[in-house]
Amino acid sequence: MIVGDVYTAYAINKFRRTEAKASGHTVTIFHRIHQTFEVITALHGFHIDKGHNKQVVKLNEGTCSYNKWQSFGIPCSHVLAVCAYMRINSWQFFEKYYRMDVYANNYALEFNPIPHESYWPYPDFPILYLDPTSMRDKSRPRSSRIRN
To answer: Does residue 57 contact residue 39 with C-beta atoms inside 8 Å?
Structure first.
């Protein structure tokens, strides 16, 4: 990571790859006030059947029908296409935990080493041991298939 970066290297690399995909998408406005858009994806490489999918992006709600934005916190190519269309800074839609200051604060706390086992408190509950006859063999299990 370079000193002075606002976002982590992972987020920057993911943004660059996704931005390249977004350049081929077509954006149409459903509702400008509610910031609802329809994005039609471009063809993928030499595949005729890939692409021309419709995704719905709702910037006010922070959702895309592709669901990668909600899952990972990094805007998908559909959201980046909408941001480029509306001339909006797309970095505002990244989750805060991809920022360097938040990332550094996660490791700012002191880590305590784990003491040796002899210093661990003895458990006050009964310890259960497995029956050795119910355990599987170490070798490969014998096939139970009935052959013709």
So the answer is: yes
Return mean pLDDT, the chain.
87
In tens, the pLDDT along 91-124 reads 999 999 899 989 888 888 888 889 999 998 888 8
Q: Do the Cβ atoms of 91 and 7 come closer than 8 Å?
A: yes
Cβ partners under 8 Å of residue 39, min gap 6: 25, 26, 27, 28, 54, 55, 56, 57, 78, 81, 82
Tokens at 53, concatenated: 């999918």
Query: 56-92: string of b/e by CB count within 10 Å (b at 16+)?
Result: ebbbeeeebebeebeeeebbbbbbbbbbebeeeebee
